């Protein structure tokens, strides 16, 4: 089955760190670019970060630049998001999503993992 | 950043109705416009990409149109499973941005 499964979410204090993972299966992970997208409780969708298939190109939203790092391990079919210096406003469900490069749309999404930043 | 504005924010409608909602970009994005459906507690699902291309497996009652700055998503005959929130997203340039969503509710 073609799927993405996120893990690693949880409760963390402001200023803390967390590492999210996304496990891919059912497709050739190494040939696809990937994204992280988040959704704060009751709010809309916000793109967070992008990584190309070979990790040569990464992009970040201004809201997380310098604090979050996207990476991947194609041998393990896994995508990661290292989140440092977490703030209350980072509280959200984090989704990993596969990117189709023709028009840069997100055609496969995981179920998401909840990150709560609170003291 | 490119701002995406959807209208209306919510829509009360009935099964069988033809529904159209719009998405406007703050600058031209050619056809780099995608539509997603999200149900409560679920991940978004891709419906339309490149403004008018139907994603595989999506029912043909969904259609998209537009280019430049103005886009529409139409559901020709609303079905019970279509009550959800719909988001547009521009993929013309990073940061890729989403509209605030249109929630389709029972009348």
Task: State the main characteristics.
heterodimer; A: 119 residues; mainly beta; seven-stranded mixed sheet; four-stranded antiparallel sheet; 11 strands; B: 107 residues; 0% helix; 50% strand; globular
Q: What's the number of helices of chain A?
A: 0
- State the order of secondary-structure elements of chain A, H for helix, E for strand: EEEEEEEEEEE
Uncertain runs of chain B are none
Helical content of chain B (DSSP H or I, runs of 4+): under 10%
User: Globular, elongated, flat, extended or rod-shaped: what is the shape of chain B?
Assistant: globular
**Content of β-strand of chain B:** over 45%
Distance between the termini of chain A: 39 Å
Largest sheet of chain B: 7 strands, mixed
List the helices and strands and how they pair.
The complex is a heterodimer of chains A (119) and B (107).
Chain A: E1 3-7, E2 10-12, E3 18-25, E4 33-39, E5 45-51, E6 58-60, E7 68-73, E8 78-83, E9 92-100, E10 105-109, E11 113-117
Parallel strand pairs in A: 2-11
Antiparallel strand pairs in A: 1-3, 3-8, 4-5, 4-9, 5-6, 7-8, 9-10, 9-11
Chain B: E1 4-7, E2 10-13, E3 19-25, E4 33-38, E5 45-49, E6 53-54, E7 62-67, E8 70-75, E9 85-90, E10 97-98, E11 102-106
Parallel strand pairs in B: 2-11
Antiparallel strand pairs in B: 1-3, 3-8, 4-5, 4-9, 5-6, 7-8, 9-10, 9-11
């Amino acid at each position: 089955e073609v799927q993405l499964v996120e893990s690693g979410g949880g409760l963390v204090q402001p200023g803390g760190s967390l590492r999210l993972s996304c496990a891919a299966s059912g497709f050739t992970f190494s040939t696809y670019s990937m994204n992280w997208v988040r959704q704060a409780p009751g709010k809309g969708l916000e793109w967070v970060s992008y990584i190309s298939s070979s990790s040569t190109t990464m992009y970040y939203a201004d809201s997380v630049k310098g604090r979050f790092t996207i990476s991947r391990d194609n041998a393990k079919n896994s995508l990661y998001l290292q989140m440092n210096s977490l703030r209350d406003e980072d509280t959200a469900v984090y989704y990993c999503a596969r990117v189709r490069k023709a028009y840069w749309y997100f055609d496969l999404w995981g179920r998401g993992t909840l990150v709560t930043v609170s003291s | 950043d490119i701002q995406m504005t959807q209208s209306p924010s919510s829509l009360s409608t009935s099964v069988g109705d033809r529904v159209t909602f719009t998405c406007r970009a703050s600058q031209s994005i050619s056809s780099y416009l995608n539509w997603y459906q999200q149900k409560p507690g679920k991940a978004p699902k891709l419906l339309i990409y490149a403004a008018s291309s139907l994603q595989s497996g999506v029912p043909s009652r969904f259609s998209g149109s537009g280019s430049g700055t103005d886009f529409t998503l139409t559901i020709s005959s609303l079905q019970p499973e279509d009550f959800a929130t719909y988001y547009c997203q521009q993929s013309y340039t990073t940061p890729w941005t989403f509209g605030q969503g249109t929630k389709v509710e029972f009348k």
